[in-house]
Amino acid sequence: AILSSGRQVVLAAALLHASGFFFGYLLSRMLGLDVSSSRTISIEVGMQNSVLGVVLATQHFGNPLTAVPCAVSSVCHSIFGSALAGIWRRTIPKEMQDSNVKK
Question: Which residues cross the membrane (predicted)?
Answer without folding.
Answer: 9-27, 66-88
